[in-house]
Amino acid sequence: MYNAEQLQEKWAPVLEHTGLDSIKDSHRKAVTAILLENQERFLREERGMLNEVASSPTNSAGTGGLTGQEGDVCRHRCPAWP
Predict the structure, then answer these.
(1) Contact 71, 63 (CB under 8 A)
(2) What is the span of the domain harbouring residue 50?
(3) pLDDT beyond 60 at 39
């Protein structure tokens, strides 16, 4: 679980940015810090997945995708598939 105080310290430059209206409600500030942390975590995980996909040697179109090879899922489930 999160320690809201630590997250508020981490995200203080965003939470207390002079170009934005100040967040006066302590609960709202804590929830906003948690949302920022969740967003950062999601973006890091997404970037990691994208890096894994990009570096995967099996990620190519000609490896049995829609090539019509025997055992191809689309050929067997789609009667109109040529």
Answers:
(1) no
(2) 4-57
(3) yes
Instruction: Give me the DSSP letters along 66-77.
Output: SS--TT-HHHHH
Instruction: Give pTM, 2 decimals.
Output: 0.58
Q: Is residue 8 within 8 Å of residue 15, measured between CB atoms?
A: yes
CA angle, residues 46, 7, 37, in degrees to nearest 5 = 15
Structural domain contains residue 16: yes
Residue 11 lies in a domain: yes
37-53 mean pLDDT:
87
Q: How many domains does the chain have?
A: 1
Asked if the structure places residue 35 within a domain, the reply is yes
User: For residue 74, is it within any domain?
Assistant: no
Q: Cα separation of 29 and 52, whole Å?
A: 35
